[in-house]
Write a structure and sequence with these properties.
Shape of chain A: globular
Strand content of chain A: 25-35%
Oligomer: heterodimer
Radius of gyration of chain B: 18 Å
Order of helices and strands of chain B: HHHHHHHHH
Number of helices of chain A: 14
CATH architecture of the largest domain in chain A: 2-Layer Sandwich
Distance between the termini of chain A: 50 Å
Helix content of chain B: 55-70%
Structural class of chain A: alpha+beta
CATH superfamily of the largest domain in chain B: Winged helix-like DNA-binding domain superfamily/Winged helix DNA-binding domain
CATH topology of the largest domain in chain B: Arc Repressor Mutant, subunit A
Largest sheet of chain A: 8 strands, mixed
CATH class of the largest domain in chain A: Alpha Beta
Structural class of chain B: mainly alpha
Largest sheet of chain B: none
Radius of gyration of chain A: 25 Å
Number of helices of chain B: 9
CATH topology of the largest domain in chain A: Antithrombin, Chain I, domain 2
Shape of chain B: globular
Largest interface: A-B, 61 and 76 residues
Number of strands of chain A: 18
Number of strands of chain B: 0
Number of domains of chain B: 2
Distance between the termini of chain B: 44 Å
CATH superfamily of the largest domain in chain A: Antithrombin, subunit I, domain 2
Helix content of chain A: 25-40%
Chain lengths: 513, 186
Amino acid sequence: MKKEQLQDAIGQIEDGILQEAQQMRGNTDGQAQEEGKPASGQPGAGRRTRYRRMAWAAVAGVAVLCGSIYGVYRHQKPGGKHTQKEIVQNNQGSTDVSLTPNEQYMVASPQYPDMVQYPDSEYDMDEYRKWSDSRKARSMKSQGCSEGFEKFFLETADTFLKGEKGKNRIYSPLNVYLASSLLAEVSDGGSRGQILGLLHEDRVETLRGKAQALWNASYCRDGLTTRLLANSFWMNENITYRQDTMDALANDYYASSFQGKMGSEAYSRALQDWVNSQTGNLLEEQAGQMEMEEGTVLRLVSTVYFQANWKSRAFDEKDTTQDVFHGENGDETCDFMHTMLVKGYRQGQGCSAARLDFEGDGGMWLILPEEGKTVDDLLEAGEWGKFLFQDGEMEQDGEYIVNLSMPKFDVSSKMDLKEGLQTLGVTDVFESGTADFSPVTDENLGIYVSAIDHAARVSVDEKGCTAAYTDIVLDAGGAAPANEVDFNLNRPFLFVIVGGDGLPLFTGVVNQP
Amino acid sequence: MEDMEIVELYWNRDEAAIARTQEKYGRYLVKIAYNILLDMEDSKESVNDTYYSAWKSMPPHRPQALSTYLAKIARQISIDIFRKKNSRKRRHSQYALSLSELEECVSGGETPQQRVELGLLAQAISAYLGTVSKEARVLFVCRYFYMDSLSEIAEYTRYSESKIKSSLYRTRRNLKAYLEKEGFVI
């Protein structure tokens, strides 16, 4: 007997048996059979949160923003009543060697929110519902937080993504927004006013609420998605800080505060350890270069760590081929992953874009300038990011089948945000005479920001796929695309990684995969 | 519109029957065709042929379950197109993949002296599926009749892909034994 005969015969099996399976797949008219179970191949089929946990492919992204506030202090006052040195001495009599380096220097620490964990058992529906309800509740709580942040993203991304020709650039708008909010919180007067202007807010109280909502919308550690946001203040041991400010930062911004001896190896190591612990060691190289220089009054460090799996095994290792990437600095042979998509394709002015979804929520937009245009042309025009914030499905959804070819990439970049921020109107905090950081300390230390370093790394690959199946991702199911397009990222392109609420976590330019 | 009303339109030779069928089952049928053909133009062509075939076959047929009736037609037409217009891309279609999985149930050899009668074979498969658990039966039909990918089945059943693969493997292995016992030359 031939297998084709068997397959043909299966086509004639009894209706009752087919109907049983049809019920499981979902009604044929697009109505869900039961809550949370849309019909397969019907609109909405791909929008449900997946219940299972598979690691077909992975995206790991991490960004570190180092806001270094270097102080020029004219009136050193040894040991205020709230210095870490004194606290340790008062509480323990001497430094407690049983504490970790971070704990030894810590003066305030946040209480991160507990999250209902994604169930271990694939069949535990009660646990699944608890997890699902918890996600929905978090989503409801953070609704509307993107207002203001959208403008910030559109205005700043162009500024920070333009740069040296042929280099990779990565920028985490979320990270910079949250760090800027922190700066606004610890500054006052004109310094604060300029930062509020950049963030499109009038009052720091309103900003605080928005930043909290953004933090809550983005932070996730539920066993399925990992998005960790962390902020920290590193203070010179000789300044007298205001404990109420540090406590407020811990409560409102989940910021940890530390105090230690600037210039000491131990304090530098504590900073490096903190960064590594917050970023899963993905930025070990960059962290190793962070030194607490003597003379620094205060250093602000903010990190975002992100890791997610592609939804529905978007890529199969067996399909990966070697091909040429035409970079601005010349051709380069690299591994290209391939898949097909039936939704998430857009055509915009001077570019086209395709979206790959992550398991759980969020996704990655890939934006390719049209032939003859460069990424910088696109950034110059300033229109490319707007579609990210458009609600609902676009008309173009479902109209195209996209043959996506994408290089594996592991890109990192480090930049100083100071010049860009000055271009965007934030100038006072960078000048000793105008900067006002009075909420940090009552002492007149003449603190100003000398540099804001921003380092980030994003790596993308396919992995974990051992099944011998290569199929298209048919999340939109029965939608009937009319056109087939090749979307070949074989020349410099932009990407935007968005979280569950569409908030841009990272954006970057890949010039050298 | 209820299925019986649509069937009535066919019997009354009312061309609205096609429009109502398209409204209610168009996407469902395109999905079935696309799983096999991996080409949207061909899938649309297959579904159009399905409507035409339904128009020709009703009357005399009066299907009790219009959805499965149409699904069977669309599936067979799509398989026919696949066989005529095989392409490199389609090696990855769910039809090709599910076919290779079914290979282990058969020898692949010609059996001219006992030409397989599809109707009898279909009856035997139905009977066999009646002996397995509902879960195994549903997974088998989703994979080999509807030709949904493992990841899609995992989506709507909420089973892990490894569980699905394991279930399909057992069902295929036992199907082979069942058919041999029933006298089919495998």
